[in-house]
Structure formats: structure tokens, C-alpha cells
Amino acid sequence: MKSYEVNFDGLVGPTHNYGGLSYGNVASQSNSQQASNPKEAALQGLAKMKALMDMGFVQGVLAPQERPDVAALRSLGFAGTDAQVIEQAAKQAMPLLVASCSASSMWVANAATVSPSADTADGRVHFTAANLNCKYHRSIEHPTTSRVLGAMFADQQHFAHHAALPAVAQFGDEGAANHTRFCRDYGEAGVEFFVFGRSAFDNRYPAPQKYPARQTLEASQAVARLHGLSDAGVVYAQQNPAVIDAGVFHNDVIAVGNGEALFYHEDAFLHTEAMLKELSDKLAARGGQFKAICVPRSQVTVEDAVRSYLFNSQLLSRADGSMLLIVPQECQNNERVWNYLQGLTAANGLIREVKVFDLKQSMQNGGGPACLRLRVALNETELAAVNPGVIMTAPLYGSLTQWVQKHYRDRMSETDLADPQLLLECRTALDELTQILKLGAVYPFQIN
């Protein structure tokens, strides 16, 4: 039976703005308070989805969230009508209003951790929504994320959904941004790779000194248990604390894996050699041949990696066995990074081609091509069980483009977030979107 790795990209929400909410994310903080363009952001994301579909990859869409999150504001003491809640928050606590308007759910690499059926004890695809509790504006996402994923992957014969881990620091979970999977074939048993920044209970693991380590070892272990993964199919690795302090807030900013290959920076991990050996041994036991592609610091510095998002790229397998790297335009604009990529493809090795995409609106808020997608490995039967409304087609691309053109503003500043009309615009757009994607009622305003 044929299997696929399907990329489900996050659709940028109508309130896309540069709130500078993510401490530790250099791009997010450096562009704080600049005016954004939600319409352009959504269209840039859709263009990437369509391009991958046109290249023959199976591509899906993951819906954005309702913003502003009025229920979250009410839980913090603001009262009255929805318009009054927004007005009060704008006057009394503007940072809370900005947080409630964050469109960060567009980066669906943080939505959940996914384990394919070939790896799990019960033979189903498992999803655990990420609690994202390190940042308030992201911690409010997982209830809606769970409903949206449940509407996309509804067949309980094939799909299992787990609630987010306890929302405490000891179980900080950032989803697939710190998780990847190695395998000979997407339908065969593989090795799941969990990367953590710190341990909550074991002080033998060093922690960063400047920026927070968002993923804990304990959270990764809990997800592996929930998904029914065997010890033979799991490797845990610690991120280098020094690169976290350099702005590498998730592993997918410094490494990306696919198939049998790990593409990573020389400074990405602690105890790199031991980790690579464990990955190689465990993948070999499952019939695979692990391949490590290390980018030396002498050619690309950590600062270059953070500024260009070289590793926040999509590494995709092609029919001839070679791989394609999808990178943001910022890689082309960085001379050292671009020279490295030209040499990489000229070597005629595993990565044969690099394609560049303009994702400036997302990049300025701290997310690149890899942040925008959640990877789900599915066999043919499982793919047939996915809600067909969320699988990208030419007609769906056309419908979503028209939907964005109709509902999105082309400028968004902090003052615009206080406009109560924005909430009505967002709800009108999302109500129509759920019909386009055939999701049913997934948003609070549709349920309550």
C-alpha cells in the first residue's frame, strides 16, 4: 500500500499582526509594532501550498483560529458585550488585547505532535495537541486546535486524538517544531526524534541562560507514551542551550529531517555524535540507512541560520529518491547561506534542488516554510479517511484565494485590533471558511 507524507499548511488568519509577543524569537521581537498585511500573508501561504500541489505533493490546509479571543479576555475579568470587552481591554491592558488577536496559529508546526500508524501500538495515527504554555498568546490555541484536527481526522478507526498535556512549565510542549521522524518509507515503522531544551526534574541537563527552553524532556516522553511508541523507535536529544540563547527557540530553526536524512547545523545539539549513532542504529534495525548532512559553522554561522531560516525549510522526497529543499527568500538574500546551498546542490548528493518562496509576511513575524506546515504520514486508506474538504485542489485554491480577497484587510496595526468590527469580520470569514473546508462547527462563536 502506498504511503504519503502530507503537508497540512496553516492558513494565515485575518488578524495577522506583528505584536512582538514571542520572547526568544528574534524576528518576532525585532519587527514588533510594524504594520502587517494579512491579505498578502495569506496569499503568500496559499501560493506555497499550490506550488507544492502542482509539483505532485499531497497538500492540505489547516484553518486559523477565531481572533480576537473574546472568551480568553472574559476569563481575565473583562465583561459586557463583545465590543465592550474589546474596548475595555484596549483601554486597560492593550498587551492582553494584542495577545488575544495573535494569528500565531498559522504556524501549525506547533499545533500538535503526530505519530503515524506504522509506529504506534494500536496501529492508528495519533495526534497530541501542543499546550504551548510557554507563551500566553499561544497557550489559548489548543482547544480550537483539537476541534479542528478532530474535524479533519474524524474516523476513530484510523485516528486517535489526545488532549494537550498539563499546562504547567514542567510539561511545556511545542508540538512538531521539536519532533521529526526518520524512516525508509513513510508507511514503514520509523524512528521518532524528540528534541528538548531542558529537563524539568533532572538538573544534569544544562539550561539556556538568556531565552527560555520551551520544550521539556518530560513533555516529549509523555507524548511518546500517549502515542504508544516503543523504546526501539524513539530517540531523545537535547538542543544546544547556546543556540537557544542565540534565538533558536525551536529545533526546526536549526535542523530539519525527512526520510532517512537529517539536515542540521554543527552547533544544533549536545552530545551530537552519540545522538547520531543512536539514530543510525535504531533506523538500521528498522531497515533504514541514516544519512546526516551537517552544515559547518565555518560556512554558515548560527546567526546566519537564524536570520535566513535556512533550517526552517521543507525537506521533501521526490520520486527519483532525491530531495528538494523549500527555503524562504531570506536564504537567497544571505550571501553565505546562498553560497552554501549552491555548493550543496552542485555536489549532486541527496539534496538536488532548492526552491525559493517569498514568505516575507510570515518571516517578519518569526515563522518560515517549516513553521507553516504540520506533517502527517498517511497510507492510502488513511488518506481516504481524511476530511476531503481540507485537501488542496485547484478549485479549493481558487475558492480560498477568493475568500481571502473578500474578507482580509491589507493593513493591520495595533490600533486596528481595538476595532470591534474586526471581530465581526473575522467571524463572518471563518463561518464561511468552515463551509468551504467542510469542517462543521469548530469555533466558539459557532458552538456557544
Structure write-up:
- Helix content is 35%, strand content 17%.
- It is α/β, with parallel strands linked by helices.
- It is globular.
- It starts with a strand and ends with a helix.
- The chain has 18 helices and 15 strands.
- It has a single domain (3-67, 102-447), classed as Succinylarginine dihydrolase (L-arginine/glycine Amidinotransferase, Chain A).
- Strand 12 and strand 13 (323-328) form a beta hairpin.
- Helix 2 packs antiparallel against helix 16, helix 4 packs across helix 5 (94-100) and helix 16 runs antiparallel to helix 17 (420-436).
Could you provide a short overview of the structure?
The protein has 448 residues and is an alpha/beta fold.
What tags apply to this protein structure?
448 residues, alpha/beta, L-arginine/glycine Amidinotransferase, Chain A, three-stranded mixed β-sheet
How many helical elements?
A: 18
- Straight-line N-to-C gap: 42 Å
The CATH topology corresponds to L-arginine/glycine Amidinotransferase, Chain A
User: How many whole angstroms does the radius of gyration measure?
Assistant: 21 Å
Determine the CATH superfamily: Succinylarginine dihydrolase
Shape: globular
Number of domains: 1
Largest sheet properties: 3 strands, mixed
Provide the spatial order of strands within the biggest beta sheet: 2-1-15
Helical residues, percent: 25-40%
The number of E-state strands comes to: 15
- The CATH architecture classification is 5-stranded Propeller
Compute the average pLDDT: 94
Beta-strand percentage? 15-25%
Q: What is the SS-derived class? A: alpha/beta
